[in-house]
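Attaching the record inline, Q. Sequence:
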Amino acid sequence: MNKIWAIAKKELSGYFRSPIAYIILIVTISTFNIFFYMIIDSNQEATLRDIFKVMEFLLVFIVPLLTMKLFAEEKASGTMEFLMTTPTSNTAIVSGKYLGILIFFTLIIAMTSLYYFIIEYFGAPDRIATLTGYIGIWMEGALFIAIGLLVSSLTRSQTIAAICSYLALFFLYFSISFIQYLHGPAEALVRYIGVFSHSENLAVGIVTASDLVYFLGGILFCLVLTRLSIENRLWR
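Structure, as predicted:
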């Protein structure tokens, strides 16, 4: 556990030593704030359901920027070989990198908690729906990060990692649009794979075992594949 935490701290400090973390924080929070004001002013309702939809959409663009260098940069700079020869298990390496970026993402989400206190002061929001909505956004972001981590482990190029992550996340986010052209098992499969069906339930306060299995199982699946990926010497 100490090694995992050490790698996570290294990843976090690496982000905050460069302007990228601050740029992402400022741009992301500023964008969230603008949409929060516009949505509340337009709807005149004490709910965050619509802002959750905006946050969900923007995650598709934000997460690849956070994850593209996690392994790709290590491979391109040659430090991956050194990291693999240290007395640290591959599981610890993957878990540490994932934890580091997950903490950074959690910080972004935590900074939006002010929205709840604002609508609580001026109205009477559904507290359960707000809580599950935040849990849904956090789990969706955690899944997207796991996907981005996996993609980054498959290439030396940060640009390719970002593009492939965008494609994967766009598919998960927009797959619901293709349901109208499908029928039977294919429709059910695409509906389940698409992230929208699961996050929509949480946004309205509905928590099901299927949704939890989708997010947690997807995260674990991607982390396992990432571990297998860095063990594969083909990238050398």
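DSSP finds twelve helices and no strands in the chain. Residues 2-235 form one domain.

More tomorrow.
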